[in-house]
Amino acid sequence: MCGIVGYIGKRDAYPVLIKGLHRLEYRGYDSAGVALISEDKELHVYKTKGKVANLEQMVSQHDVSGTVGIAHTRWATHGEPNDVNAHPHYSQSESLALIHNGIIENYMLLKQVLLDNGYTFRSCTDTEVLVQFIEYVKKTNKVDLRHAVQIALREVIGAYAIAVVERGNPDQIIAARKSSPLVVGIGKDEFFLASDATPIIEYTDQVVYIKDEEIAVIRRDEPLRIINLHDIEKTPEIHTLEMSLSQLEKGGYPHFMLKEINEQPQTIVDCIRGRINVEGTDVILSGVLDNRERFLNAQRIIIVACGTSWHAALIGEHLIEDLCRIPVEVEYASEFRYRNPVIRPDDIVIAISQSGETADTLAAVELAREHGAFIYGICNVIGSSIARATDTGSYIHVGPEIGVASTKAFTGQVTVLSMLALTIAKYRQTIAPEYYRELIGELSSVPEKMRRVLEQDAQIRDLSKIFTYAHNFIYLGRGYNYPAALEGALKLKEISYIHAEGYPAAEMKHGPIALIDTEMPVVAIATTDSIYEKTISNIQEIKARKGRVIAIVTEGDTIVRNLADYCIEVPRMVENFAPLVSAIPLQLLAYYIAVNKGANVDQPRNLAKSVTVE
Ligand code: G6P
What we know:
614 residues; alpha/beta; Glutamine Phosphoribosylpyrophosphate, subunit 1, domain 1; Rossmann fold; 3 domains; 8-stranded antiparallel β-sheet; 7-stranded antiparallel β-sheet; 37% helix; globular; binds 6-O-phosphono-alpha-D-glucopyranose
């Protein structure tokens, strides 16, 4: 949540910062702002409510010169999204400007100290308190900016990634982090700063990930210095990025979401590459292989996640219990971290997170660590906080996901969980060798089957037109397809703002069936599986009450076709991996309904992709 960018070097800073903000807009788009230091060492701050495009329009009449600057795109926490609450924030004397991603929890306390000392405030934000406090510390201790930031942050409780610039000093940016991500890009005679590597990759692939309680002293024509809050100097660890620029472009698609939906046949190939052998007879997930004893002895697996990743976790529960016979519990990270859960040293905790930055999931990982559990991460963003905080893990390798609604990350997560379950089952000998090989064959067939579903794009687009103005939707599934139903409903509500609920099909009769009438579209996932007949009965119950049924069925199905109002066919798939194909038509249906409504598909209102606040 909130994206921050910084630049210092020989180029004009403004275009670099604006481009960077566009790349980070998925992190929030309530307001945008920039602070630049011009040739004459003046500090200029421009900021406005709304998206980065609004900021560009606003600054067109202003001086945007300068080769150093910082910029911000906001997802509001404290204070409504308006011009005043937008970042950067000035200090009292307007000599400092600061941008911030995170939440300062004790800001009321700090604000009182400042009010008692005659400071006044323009905004309602915790961020303004922080910049004022840094200036207060700087003045009272008579220290330079780096020391002032260091001393001030020792008093701060909460999460932050910050960058500060100072009037009269065009040669320096001071940045720091705790619990919110921050990356420094090292170019030739220039430095870049950002919440993630996407604004940096265009210029350099050499990056340093700033760690918790570290301060980056970024000075023109000097090497990068990393000093922690307790004044210990660290050697910067330089990493080489693997990402490519083309992965960050729309590649001819009208939206990132549609591009990402269509990428799935390839992202699954990338996800399984090097993990399923070329003969298609074995799965090797190195994180499991290297910790074989842990998995052999595990008494229980707890999976923690949020949002779409939580839906993938529910599928993981089915897979692991079914194939490995280890009890699994799935927890919302935000609940788990605050409810004094029982965590034992022989538990394995799996944390699933696309961004690897979700604050609640990260906190759940830390809690599990305190209790001595072994922690396995399933992340997409390489080098992200959760990936680094876990003992080991597997990246899903689906490439950057830009659309706020998660699509290819979901199927990547389910694919990794499938490989994880197969690997553990093999070691624990809870799966017959022939069945193990059969399932590997099925998993390898997923990309081709996804391709066949994607060929029905036009048909799904036509279907979407019938339901554009529905006010509610129900999504039903059973077994492995129940989490797929939850995910389908989440996709629709996120991007089209239509109320949608996912439900286990058989639970309908315990309440929700009362909602069924001719106005209620019901999406029923009724692919051929061990409970197919039961699902058919549930569809019959809906039809008896005149509900309109859109069914996702297996190719060649005739029974459901005779019952449902509309059918979308997906290739036959063993039930363990069914959500990998049944998810695709649900993603496309949600996408086209949102497009028909004219909604901003890639940046839905009130949402952000990387939720770094709890
Ligand atoms: C936000 C995103 C969702 C995502 C969830 C968890 O709500 O909009 O798409 O599923 O966070 O994010 P994570 O990065 O931890 O998977």
